[in-house]
Amino acid sequence: MKRSTLFAAQLIFTCLVCAFMLVPVLLSLLAGLTRNYFQGLSSGLTFDWLVQVWQAYSPTVWLSLQLAVACALCVCVIGVPAAYALVRMNNRFSRAFEELMVLPVAMPGLASALALLLTYGHLGGFRGSWLFILVGHVLFTLPFLVRPVMAVMQRQNLPTLEDAAASLGAGPLRRFFTVVVPNCRAGILAGVLMVVTLSLGEFNLTWMLHTPMTKTLPVGLADSYASARLEVASAYTLLFLLMIVPLLIALQAISARLSRGDQR
């Protein structure tokens, strides 16, 4: 009896916490589908606000997707070899380098953006390009791929596998691409999804680095909140969640798969 009462109390508390977090989100999404938010559902539902948002802000969506994909590719090219080198070295220098790599995450995004502006802001063509924002996103998201890949590499028996491949005549590059990468693909995929999600949602750093021609989705979202109707801003939020939620679900599925693999 006491156990069932405790379970019921925990369930009620959990439901209340979920409602506290989710009800504001649901109301915001509903506002983006309501013809007039101040009249409520009695005014009817419509997709007109979503169409208006897409017509006005679709360039920010495409730029955000372009940045996220480019960021994931750059972070993979840099991060996977870096994680492999750090795992293989495993000394005081590698641990210090790993901590320094996390520094852009520990610093406020505005401070990191200011540092980039002071260093590269005088390069006019680069400053006005989306590549300038890409550099900031790579610096910010790199640890989120390196850490999961390092964790997977440390769990795998890579030295033994590499020695076996070397005994068959495989060189360093061939061992890296045919032994190391395939055995770490789950960690790489999880890191890539995390990088894409963070790049799509990054605001503080992007807000400092963007120009009127390089607005991303979060920056456009802030503009819509400041200058448009509540319904437009809510419809923009709905569009943003339609992009982010599938990535989060995929990330959770990969994490669950990795956990099952560890238990085996």
UniProtKB/TrEMBL annotation:
<protein>
    <submittedName>
        <fullName>Putative spermidine/putrescine transport system permease protein</fullName>
    </submittedName>
</protein>
<feature type="transmembrane region" description="Helical">
    <location>
        <begin position="233"/>
        <end position="254"/>
    </location>
</feature>
<feature type="transmembrane region" description="Helical">
    <location>
        <begin position="176"/>
        <end position="200"/>
    </location>
</feature>
<keyword id="KW-0472">Membrane</keyword>
<dbReference type="GO" id="GO:0055085">
    <property type="term" value="P:transmembrane transport"/>
</dbReference>
<keyword id="KW-0812">Transmembrane</keyword>
<feature type="transmembrane region" description="Helical">
    <location>
        <begin position="129"/>
        <end position="146"/>
    </location>
</feature>
<feature type="transmembrane region" description="Helical">
    <location>
        <begin position="99"/>
        <end position="123"/>
    </location>
</feature>
<keyword id="KW-1133">Transmembrane helix</keyword>
<dbReference type="Pfam" id="PF00528">
    <property type="entry name" value="BPD_transp_1"/>
</dbReference>
<dbReference type="InterPro" id="IPR000515">
    <property type="entry name" value="MetI-like"/>
</dbReference>
<comment type="similarity">
    <text>Belongs to the binding-protein-dependent transport system permease family.</text>
</comment>
<feature type="transmembrane region" description="Helical">
    <location>
        <begin position="63"/>
        <end position="87"/>
    </location>
</feature>
<keyword id="KW-0813">Transport</keyword>
<feature type="transmembrane region" description="Helical">
    <location>
        <begin position="6"/>
        <end position="30"/>
    </location>
</feature>
<keyword id="KW-1003">Cell membrane</keyword>
<dbReference type="GO" id="GO:0005886">
    <property type="term" value="C:plasma membrane"/>
</dbReference>
<keyword id="KW-0997">Cell inner membrane</keyword>
<dbReference type="InterPro" id="IPR035906">
    <property type="entry name" value="MetI-like_sf"/>
</dbReference>
<feature type="domain" description="ABC transmembrane type-1">
    <location>
        <begin position="61"/>
        <end position="251"/>
    </location>
</feature>
